[in-house]
Amino acid sequence: MLKFVILVPQEVETTIATLSSSMTITSLATSTSTLPQTTTTTTTTSTTTTTQQSGWFRTGSTNNVRERHTASLLINGKVLVIGGLYNADPTIGELYDPSSGTWTITGSINNAREGHTASILKNGQVLVAGGANGGNLNTAELYDPSTGMWTTTGHMNHPRDGHTISLLTNGHVLVTGGLNGLGALNSTELYNPLTGTWTLINTMNNARYGHTASLLTNGNVLVTGGYNNLAGLHSTELYDSSTGMWTTTGNMNYARERHTASLLINEKVLVTGGYNNLSATNTTELYDPSSGTWTITGSMNHAREQHTASLLRNGIVLITGGRGHS
Q1: Are strands 173-176 and 188-192 parallel, antiparallel or unpaired?
Q2: Which one is the CATH code of 204-326: 3.90.1700.10, 2.120.10.80, 3.40.50.1820, 3.40.50.11320?
Q3: What does the pLDDT look like over 227-253, one tens digit per residue?
Q4: Would the CA dihedral through 260, 300, 266, 9 be positive or negative?
Q5: pLDDT exceeding 90 applies to what percent of the chain?
Q6: I need a surface site. Which of 72, 146, 156, 193 has the fewest CB within 10 A?
Q7: Domains 1-9+50-161 and 204-326 are alike in CATH topology
């Protein structure tokens, strides 16, 4: 079983401030006395202030141990986990329900795979593509959350593992690079959900796997780094979704593979860590789409590769896990 831990804000002991005030009310009696009668009334008002504090707590464990799997947040708020290594039945899918903290078995994928990609389509279905199962795969499948069933869809033109997948603004899905039995790929393909078919499109300028792909606010896709069979890359390139063309853009300051790339709220892209041909690195840099240039920014406290990066609602990027150099 695979155990999960979730970070959430939790309500803690409240602070209560009590405000007291006295009010004197003077009233004239109906008697013949010339002295007024006074009545003093005390009122008390309580104000409660609730503070929040972050904390980790355990949640339900998956039914199968997994590595190199995918996790996809569905439109209904549940999380679909599929594939990976080390599980007793690698075809079994599982659903996590945040409201109950429990995992349930869902439909089994038709082909066992690890190192694949998963993308949520605009219709809410999940497209799983490629990966490996003894050899590299070109098969693709669709998961329907309304039925919990998997159906095969068109095969990619090339088997690939360690590739990227990006949902474009027009609803098509872009797959780039990856690794096949011969080495790194520069080929790219588009999946059309309406026809269930893959089309080979223009190749990247550099073959690569272990790279990143980020959908920019203008609809273009930025691909960074990776490995090309010889060494890690510091090259980057842009896919123009309106023309289907690839153009090189500014090189990163450091070569890196198995890193992360996050589109920030200011429309810049933050790249962190990765492997730099010698070891894991703690370096980070920012890409500015308006100038096509990279700028080194603050280093992480720990060098890491194969980690994750999550953009939080407040604009901060959370980095977790990975593999270090020690």
Answers
A1: antiparallel
A2: 2.120.10.80
A3: 999 999 999 999 999 999 999 999 999
A4: positive
A5: 77
A6: 146
A7: yes
3-state secondary structure 146-183: CCCEEEEECCCCCCCECCEEEECCCCCEEEECCECCCC
What H or E segment, with its residue span, contains residue 266?
none
CA distance 317 to 268: 13
Q: How far is CA 161 from CA 22, 54, 99, 180, in A?
A: 76, 37, 34, 7
Task: Return the ∠ at Cα 264 (arms to 260 and 270), rounded to 5°.
Answer: 35
Query: How many CB atoms sit inside 10 A of residue 106's CB?
Result: 20
DSSP string, 75-103: TTS-EEEE--BS-SSTT-EEEEETTTTEE
Indicate yes or no: pTM above 0.70: yes
Give residue limits of the domains in the chain. 1-9+50-161, 204-326
Half-sphere exposure (Cβ direction) of 215: Cα atoms closer than 13 Å: 15
